[in-house]
Amino acid sequence: MTTPAQDAPLVFPSVAFRPVRLLVISLVLTAAAIAAAAWLGVPMVGVFFGIGLLMGLLNAVLVQRSVSVITAKTHPLKRSMAMNSVTRLAILTVIGLAIAFAFRPVGLGVVFGLALFQVLLVATTALPVWKKLRAGAVQSGSDAERTEGTAPSDD
C-alpha cells in the first residue's frame, strides 16, 4: 500500500551545499567578468554580472535557511515551503529585472549573473553527490567480485 502524495511527509535529502566555496567562485568569476568587460570597454557589465552572482548566492543561502526552519517543525507543510519559494523568487526576480531595466543595457549583466549562478549551484552540489554515489557503486562492485571468488567449490 502506498501513501498518497498529499499525505506523504515532507523530506529533504542532505545536499552538499557549500556557500563559502560558492562565494569564492562568484568573486573569481566577478573579477574575470569585470576584466573582460573592461577590455571590451564596458566594465559595468562585469559589475552587474557580479551583482547577479551575489543575488543568486543570497537566494541559495535563504533556501538553506528556510528548509532548515520548515523541516524543524513537527509537521512541516509542503505549502509553506512552496509559498516561501514563490515569495523569495518573486522578490529576487523583481529586483533583478528592475536593475536590468534601470541600467539598461549594461544592467542585463544581473540577469546573466543570476542564470550562471544556477548552473554553478547545480554543478557544485551535484558533482560531490555523483562522485560519492559512483564511489559507492565501485565499492559494491568490488564486494560482489570478492564474494563470487570465495564461493565454495564442489571438488
From TrEMBL:
Keyword Manganese in annotation: no
Keyword set, alphabetical order: Cell membrane, Membrane, Transmembrane, Transmembrane helix
Signal peptide annotation: none
UniProt keyword annotation of Transmembrane present: yes
Primary subcellular site in the record, as a coarse category: membrane
Subcellular location: Cell membrane
Short name of any one Pfam family annotated for the protein: ATP-synt_I
Spans traversing the lipid bilayer: 20-40, 46-64, 85-103, 109-130
Protein name in UniProt: ATP synthase subunit I
Lineage: Bacteria, Bacillati, Actinomycetota, Actinomycetes, Mycobacteriales
